[in-house]
Amino acid sequence: MTDTIIRTPTLADAAALGALGRQTFVDTFVTGFGIPYPAEDLEAFLDASFSPDATTTKLQEPGSGWWVAEGAGGQLLAFANTGPNTLPHPDGRASHAELRRLYVSKAAQGMGLGTKLLALSLEWMEAHTDGPLWIGVWSGNEKAQKLYAAYGFEKAGEYDYPVGRWVDHEFILRRG
């Protein structure tokens, strides 16, 4: 990991960042957790979430924060994205900060990159909020829930997250 750097991505990273997000989503939720998303729903979601154009737009979103972990040779290994809260909780406001994504590639699991990116994200979120911090997490991802609990997050609600026409049951976590 000594060859890994954490930096802010540029628009030139959009295609690689989108590809990393796409592959990590599939590795985690389809292969890892075995969620049986219908193929057309999964493809529509992946295209809308991780295409180069979608990623470019997200990188330029006002009020967002991004970090990537880059390995030797320039390969992106992990990323985190924060921004104004969008979670559907009655106490949530757009002026609060939300951790939108924390993705670590399968190849980089166990390298401590997720913890480093989470620490950077939380620091940024604390500096860019006027209220609590928010995270949405899939209800079946107990490993992530335990990690966030270790950083002071507690379950504050639930919501449905669309993946195409498929709906994932998610938990809303709050700190503060």
Break the fold down into its secondary structure elements and pairings:
Blueprint: E1 5-7, H1 14-32, H2 39-50, H3 52-59, E2 65-70, E3 76-84, E4 97-104, H4 113-127, E5 133-138, H5 142-150, E6 154-163, E7 166-175
Helical residue percent? Answer: 25-40%
Report the end-to-end length measured between terminal Cα atoms: 33 Å
Strand portion, in percent? 25-35%
Task: Identify low-pLDDT runs.
Answer: none
Reading the helices and strands in chain order gives EHHHEEEHEHEE
Average pLDDT number: 96
Overall structural class, as computed from helix and strand content, comes to alpha+beta
Instruction: State Rg.
Output: 15 Å
Number of strands: 7
Biggest sheet strand order reads 1-2-3-4-5-7-6
Q: Identify the overall geometry.
A: globular
Largest β-sheet summary: 7 strands, mixed
Tally of helical segments: 5
